[in-house]
Task: inverse folding
């Protein structure tokens, strides 16, 4: 496929994504009982746009389903159908099917036809209820008979079930298609325009009104090659557009070429495109492999909608069809709409995958900000240059300039981050669906509440969040939330609640998944872990450690393997994914009240604010976000525990003392010996557990660029990454949470338990 | 069988060269069928379409853009079956 087409298709899929989000939002609002006109219109628009776009690419499956969906929504829009919870549920289900169809068109997995049919039937039932039932029945039969067909044939725009309902106000009344004939003058090509552009314009117009154009090319005037003049225009075209297309929009297409192109626009009387009178049409219509199906059988549909394109004369005239279905079978053509074959052909294979190209949409003002800053940077650079050329050296001035450049660099970095930032909404909204599906599989009733969807995170993170979140939510529904009976017995509402929230917390993003289910059954977890040989039978574990067992590879908490669990993707995969993003997962669980998972992720994977400290003579970086305070401590505040470890009491709170150098195996320190000059950094992990790091000195605070140490060397415990300092030396970035966890594990877990207990 | 490889971009400005190339191929083929290799074409405009149709030469391995363009121009049938020769 051409690059152009690919690009357009890509944009279409991006838009689909947005429309689906819009749809999700609207339907959620509807299910919350917010059935304002605006909401319903938004939902309708979303489906309509998907349909319109899909039609122009000939994504037939998508178009047909979207159309049924749209018709049902129209019932809602016109007030014939009330948005009862049942109906909203049907719409939600249909939305899932729709987004699967979009994914399918994008080269994803093929959607089960049974599912499509089921949802389609439900949708039709909705308007059936609203408008007296007779019509939808008929509709049911036709598409049902028809569905298997397109699989065998080259996909076509056989959107004959368009307008099946005849409900669409805009489409129903007028039945006369618009016939446009035009022959470009030679002057049009001289001017640099092309008949191609006109045809594309007409096709767009048709699509904008929910149909397709039928193009016939008149080649009779074409001489033999030797006799032709290349710059002369010989061909003319006849285009049949859906009746819904107003003449003005056709005029608009020819606006620029009206003086160099003969155009006639006529309304074709009632009988649709095939009833044309002109010679080319008469020749083409019967012979077309794909004559607009519905026309002859007038009762079926609004013919205007059913105007697939194909204009290839072929010497076979279909006899009057015995039945619609037969007719369709017989006439499904090999020749598709313009641009239809290619997208579909490619869409059905995985060939599209590699084409996938990452693009983002950015608020223009963010780009403008960035541009302004770059302008400033250029000025600053010029200023520095001029200082450098000065005779007297201009030391003072230089320092001033460099300081302002530093601010600029930081601003630019922020601006670039802002460009890459994306609200987590896109991922969060997908989770609604995950929960819905998990609910229907486990027959539980769970409401997912989203909070902080507007929290912005680096784009790379947003994308990578999807999988872990999916697993965790499935888990929450499958294992976390109890069955309705058990919930009632426990005195809870039969409807489970899951809260998915995102927020910023000290330079990181914190995502919590909180359910109000049964909590982790630690005894069972422990027993299972022992049974599976994950831990030794005589191991003594703290509650936290037991909770964390569910992240162990090969662990399954489910008493029985359900559809959702046992897919070979466990919580260990989740943990790996989060760790891979530089994040951390913590669990807290109160039996009988629920479980909370906290994911803490860095905002970006590129730069962090670090405190430069010295341990055993080498400079290291501690992320500023994890430093709570720094202080010098008195020896009398340090207490030794029976096992030899030290704790320090700071304003009455005890926390483990970590001699950083010996912790990292650098030596130079005894067991927690503390000299007078040493400084203590009180550091905190995401769940609020604290520890005190002993360092020799604090050097500076600076922004450091993160360089992966795993990629360049290998994973090291206690070290999350490395960086290159201003003097060119390599320095390690400490993994504070790991250090804290180590210390807590060794010494005392109570502080963290108290806190997490409160948090839950 | 002689074959002409069509250029990537068949826009208005390419029409003349296209016609010359095809004519030349037809002449040198001496009555043999000339096949137009359209596998590399990414854009096809109206004037070049005229030349392709007028040549009455079959297309070999038309690229997707060509298939799309033929569909857009309503001449998909000519992909497989060139226009009937002109009676002279």
Result:
């Amino acid at each position: 496929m051409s690059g152009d087409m690919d690009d357009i298709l890509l944009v279409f899929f991006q838009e689909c994504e947005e429309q689906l989000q819009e749809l999700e939002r609207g339907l959620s609002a509807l299910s919350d009982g917010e059935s304002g006109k605006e909401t319903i219109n938004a939902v309708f628009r979303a489906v309509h746009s998907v349909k319109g776009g899909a039609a122009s690419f000939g994504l037939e499956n998508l178009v047909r389903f979207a159309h049924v969906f749209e018709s049902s929504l129209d019932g809602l829009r016109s007030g014939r159908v009330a948005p009862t919870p049942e109906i909203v549920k049907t719409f939600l289900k249909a939305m899932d099917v729709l987004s699967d169809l979009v994914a399918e068109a994008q080269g994803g997995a093929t959607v089960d036809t049974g599912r499509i049919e089921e949802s389609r039937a439900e949708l039709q039932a909705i308007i059936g209820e609203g408008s007296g039932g007779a019509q939808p029945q008929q509709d049911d039969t036709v598409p049902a008979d028809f569905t298997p067909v397109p699989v065998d044939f080259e996909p076509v725009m056989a959107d004959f079930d368009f307008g099946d309902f005849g409900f669409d106000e805009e489409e129903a009344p007028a039945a006369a298609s618009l016939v446009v004939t035009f022959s470009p003058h030679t002057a049009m090509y001289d001017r640099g325009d092309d008949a191609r552009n006109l045809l594309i314009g007409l096709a767009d117009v048709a699509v904008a009104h929910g149909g397709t154009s039928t193009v016939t090319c008149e080649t009779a005037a074409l001489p033999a090659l030797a006799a032709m003049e290349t710059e002369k225009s010989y061909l003319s075209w006849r285009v049949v557009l859906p009746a819904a297309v107003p003449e003005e929009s056709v005029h608009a297409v020819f606006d620029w070429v009206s003086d160099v192109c003969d155009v006639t626009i006529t309304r074709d009387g009632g009988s649709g495109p095939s009833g044309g009178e002109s010679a080319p049409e008469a020749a083409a219509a019967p012979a077309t492999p794909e004559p607009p199906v519905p026309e002859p059988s007038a009762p079926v549909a609004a013919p205007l909608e059913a105007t697939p394109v194909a204009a290839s004369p072929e010497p076979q005239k279909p006899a009057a069809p015995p039945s619609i279905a037969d007719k369709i079978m017989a006439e499904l053509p090999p020749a598709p709409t313009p641009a239809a074959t290619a997208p579909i052909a490619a869409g059905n294979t995985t060939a599209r995958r590699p084409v996938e190209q990452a693009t983002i949409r950015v608020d223009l003002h963010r780009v403008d900000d960035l541009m302004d800053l770059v302008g400033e940077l250029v000025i600053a650079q010029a200023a520095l240059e001029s200082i450098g050329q000065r005779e007297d050296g201009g030391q003072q001035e230089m320092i001033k300039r460099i300081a302002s450049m530093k601010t600029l660099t930081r601003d630019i970095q922020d601006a670039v981050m802002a460009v890459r930032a994306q609200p987590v909404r896109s991922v969060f909204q997908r989770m609604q669906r995950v929960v819905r599906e998990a609910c229907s599989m486990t027959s539980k009733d769970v409401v997912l509440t989203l909070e902080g969807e507007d929290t912005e995170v680096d784009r790379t993170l947003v994308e990578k969040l999807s999988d872990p979140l999916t697993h965790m939510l499935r888990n929450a529904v499958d294992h976390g939330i109890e069955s309705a009976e058990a919930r009632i017995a426990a005195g809870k509402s039969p409807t489970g609640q899951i809260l998915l929230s995102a927020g910023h917390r000290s330079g990181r993003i914190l995502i919590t998944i909180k359910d109000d289910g049964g909590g982790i059954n630690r005894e069972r977890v422990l027993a299972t872990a022992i049974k599976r040989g994950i831990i030794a039978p005589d191991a003594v574990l703290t509650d936290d450690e037991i909770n964390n067992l569910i992240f162990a590879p090969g662990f399954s908490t489910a008493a029985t393997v359900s559809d959702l669990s046992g897919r070979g993707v466990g919580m260990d995969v989740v943990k790996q994914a989060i760790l891979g993003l530089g994040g951390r997962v913590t669990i807290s669980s109160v039996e009988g009240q629920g479980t909370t998972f906290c994911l803490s992720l860095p905002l970006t994977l590129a730069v962090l604010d670090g405190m430069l400290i010295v341990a055993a003579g080498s400079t290291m970086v501690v992320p500023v976000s994890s430093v709570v305070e720094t202080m010098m401590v008195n020896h009398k505040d340090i207490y030794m525990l029976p096992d030899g470890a030290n704790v320090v009491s700071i304003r009455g709170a005890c926390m483990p003392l970590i001699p950083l150098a010996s912790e990292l195996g650098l030596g130079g320190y005894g067991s927690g010996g503390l000299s007078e000059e040493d400084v203590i950094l009180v550091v905190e992990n995401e769940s609020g557990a604290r520890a005190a790091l002993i360092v020799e000195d604090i050097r500076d605070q600076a922004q450091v660029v993160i360089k992966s140490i795993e990629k360049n060397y290998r994973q090291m415990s206690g070290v999350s990454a490395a960086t290159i300092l201003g003097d060119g030396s390599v320095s390690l970035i400490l993994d504070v949470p790991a250090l804290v966890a180590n210390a807590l594990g060794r010494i005392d877990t109570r502080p963290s338990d108290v806190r997490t207990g409160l948090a839950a | 069988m002689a074959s002409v490889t069509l250029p990537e971009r068949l826009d208005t400005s390419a029409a003349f060269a296209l016609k010359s190339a095809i004519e030349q191929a037809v002449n040198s083929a001496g009555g043999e069928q000339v096949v137009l290799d359209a596998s590399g074409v990414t854009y096809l405009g109206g004037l070049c379409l005229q030349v392709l149709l007028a040549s009455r030469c079959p297309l070999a391995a038309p690229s997707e853009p060509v298939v799309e363009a033929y569909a857009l121009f309503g001449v998909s049938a000519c992909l497989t079956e060139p226009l009937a020769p002109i009676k002279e």
Notes: Residues 2 and 26 of chain B are 8 Å apart (CA to CA).
